[in-house]
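Dear all,

This email documents one entry for the complex benchmark we are building for the journal club exercise. For each entry we list the sequence lines for every component of the assembly. Then comes the predicted three-dimensional structure of the complex as a token string, followed by one or two observations. Please use this as the template for your own entries, and keep the labels exactly as they appear.
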Amino acid sequence: MYGQEFSLQSISLAIPKSQITGIMGPSNSGKTTLLRILNRLTDLIPDILIRGQVLLDGVDILMPHYNVNLLRARVGMVFAKPIPLPRSIYENLTFGPRMHGVKDRRILDERVEQSLQAAILWDEVKDRLFESALKLSGGQQQRLCIARTLAMQSEVILLDEPTSGLDPISTAKIEEALRNLKKDYTIILVSNNTKQIARISDRVAFFLMGDLIEYGPPDMLFTNPSDKRTEDYVSGRFG
Amino acid sequence: MRFNQFRLGVTLFLCLMALSCSSKNFTHSQALTIAGSTSVQPFAEKLAEIYMDINPKLIINVQGGGSTAGIKACREKVAQIGTSSRELHPNEGDLTKIIIAKDGIAVIVHPQNPVNDISIEQLRGIFSGKIRSWSRLGWVDKPIYFVNREEGSGTRDAFESLVMKKGEISDEALVQDSNGSVREIIANNPQAIGYISFGILNHQVKALAVNSVIPNLTTIKNNQYTLTRPFIFVLPSQPTPLASQFVDFVLSQEGQQILEKEGLVGFQ
Amino acid sequence: MKEKIIEKILTLLAFSAIGVLLLITVFIFKEGLPVILKAGIKDFLFSAKWAPTKGHFGILAMIISSLAVTFGSIVMGVPLALACAVTLAEFCPPRLLVFLKPTIELLAGIPSVVFGFLGVILLVPIIREYLGGPGLSLLAASIILAIMILPTITSISIDAIQAVPLLYKEGALAMGATHWQAIWLVILPAARSGVVTAIILGMARAIGETMAVIMVAGNALKIPSSLLDPVRTLTSTIALEMGYSAGDHRTALFAAGMILFIFIMALTILANLLMRKK
Amino acid sequence: MMRLNPILSQKIIKTLLWILTGSTIGILFFIIIYIFIKGLPQLSWTFLSTNPVDMGRSGGILATIVSTVYLIGIALFFATPLGLGTAIYLTEYTREGLITKIIRFGTESLAGIPSIILGLFGFAIFVIAFGWGWSLLSGGLTLSAMLLPTIIRTSEESILSVPQEYREVAFSLGVGKWKTITRVVLPAALPGIVTGIVLSIARSVGETAVIIFTAGSSLRFPSSIFESGRTLAVHFYILAREGISMPMAYGTAAILVLLILIINISAYMTMRFLMKRYS
């Protein structure tokens, strides 16, 4: 996924609170890398070089001594493939909070219910919370992964093509959940699916070959793009 | 897998280390280790078994390893008593030697082997590889398989000095590292011949008369049977009290009776 | 902070294996080298006269015996093992393989003393009755070792054969080759390095085996002149005499151990190089 | 010269291969069945629960079972953390490079060292230099050097097979590296790790050369790890080789083979159980 010479260049973005920011662009355009910088999962890649600043509430999260674990607790991430841990649904949801020291059973129960409700999964799984999460369908698993982030009570949710492998119904459910969530969370959604971006984003950024081409409200990008490349992309001429 | 289990592991490890310090003292005050000759081992074990019945608190460990190892173990304080089935070498003079019994070296063959008598010269001929067929001893013309002990064995040491004099044992000899395994080979091969401690002779094999003297307690005691050697306890110049007490027991009338019952000859 | 400490501890732990290996190397060489230098490398390696208590330290006979026993076990064991590997990997229904492979690996778990004992009880009398000699012999040791190394070679070879891309086999079959021709002409050559590695590891196990060999080989010091002669390997000499040795005798045994160690390391390095090629 | 029809020659070869394979597997079953026929009739509760008397001529084998258990316990106590630690380091804390090459080479080589050489080593280090004498501790420590490579290799393999995504999920939830390893990676790798440990137990049960040199062969019931002890395999070796008692030897051998069988089977069962738990 990370080519040796690949890089993102001179990017400046202001992500608004309590909105869904969509990021689109062809594959290899640097979307996923950008997303991973935001909660410093890029730390896992050896020899990566990142310069610049990422300010969260005015503090640069790229500073070496910044507490990465706390950052990741605040900035949650949902991956392209649903990856439930090989445990029960309940344990999947309480894993994060427990690791951050929440031990009270009542609080944990509460968070499980709230986060499942928010991810519109509660009704489907409330009777089998202690069964293996691997038994859920793909769409349910992905909603579980969203719920897992919610259970951490994070402030920002990063989604990396969360519906890429799912059927339209599951996709619709996830989009519904995201719309409900945006009042409490800052959501950044990376997607290949331009229509999805158009449907639910409040602001859209278009990336190409590591460059930020255009950033603005969806109406502008989709109906009246200022850059030729954006127009080509949204009209499906390449991508 | 959990972190507290990891912590538990560390604690256990520290306990073990603490135990190791305390237990070392324990070893020196309450336990006795006897190591050395595999010929002496069965008798030492019998003595230890009975002595531990008398002194239930005491622990005696009996190890094999061989005469030289026993002497070395005694010198290195790994064992409090070393046992040997050969005389001490001149460079081992720093240790105290105590003869506990006399043992015969029985020359054995398969029970079906018709040969009953052998001379020292014939024996030397066989082991030096010059006499190669049983026909030379008045049986059929079949090859002789002779079984030797390994280099360093007390029994072999004694056999070499009593039988071979200055001659060397041929390198064609089969080699086994204990009396029992020599006996097993002879018991399974009608053409084999070997030598073992008289004390562990049993019905599986037949002891030959050497120079027409049959080995038994009487002939060994009065030196008519010439292939004998001492069984020795080796102690450091300053033995531990436990070791001294055990040696006293072995040399007492009771101890000597046990040894005679097991097939050895008392030291007197 | 905690993470840093854990990483340091793990780094330390990670060097445990190589640490133990170094410790063994240093210590075997430290104990063994002096006596070799004293006796002279030539006399040590190329004289067959071994009487350490009388100052003779030649281990030639043992080296030859060790090599002979290993060679014998390879000659007998490898064809059988390869036959098993090919049959199980190619002809065996998968459901049977699931059962048979662990069964063969189980054979590797049977203690070597049990093999040695069965050799003494069953094999040695047969050799003595029908072939002559004392029964305890080079042949007996080779047969027992061949059985002991079978599972190692079989199971690694199965893995090697299964690792050959299915495409190769399909290609051969598509050109009209029979299944056996595909195995012989395409699959086995492709699995060669894995199979050779398996054989080398089997050799290392054979040359290092001690207890079973002591029990069935007869342990005579003479250089063997026939399959029915008793032999004494490097390992059995060490095990037979260690307990009784002192002074130069003991160091001579360590020196024998050193030679054995060098053999084994050479085999291991060879196996490693072959594996890397793959 | 007549050229054989390829189909016919395949048939002949296939038959031949099956005969060879059949006889190999036959040998295995023969060994196990032979030992069981001779040995199982000797087994009884008294045989298992009483101590050997008169060098093992009569009585049971309790002391040797206890010594075996002690020895395995000690060996695993040292080998498991070292082996698992090494495996974790190799898989999680470092990249392929010179250091991993050196460590892997050390592991491979240690696996190839004959037990007799390990025995020499343990004898001089633990028995003589550390002054522990022939003891279960000396034996267990030497044995742990023998088990180390097995545990490292099996653990490494099973840790590597844990999907990388699990680690990313844990990290993305703000879980630290060590906690990720202990709470996510190791539990997922557990089946393989446990199998490796169980199989290394089987190996220790059958080992003799190392143990005679380092743990001695005292037949007494061991009351602490600083005493010498005789394991089942060593007991069998001595009984059989010295011709002390053949029925006892067969009985001990049957127990040994039975143990190896049980250990192997339980290794597969544990693995399957652990793998099935959540999938």
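Observations: The CA atoms of residues 44 and 60 of chain D lie 9 Å apart. Residues 66-238+256-278 of chain D form a domain with the MetI-like fold fold (CATH 1.10.3720.10).
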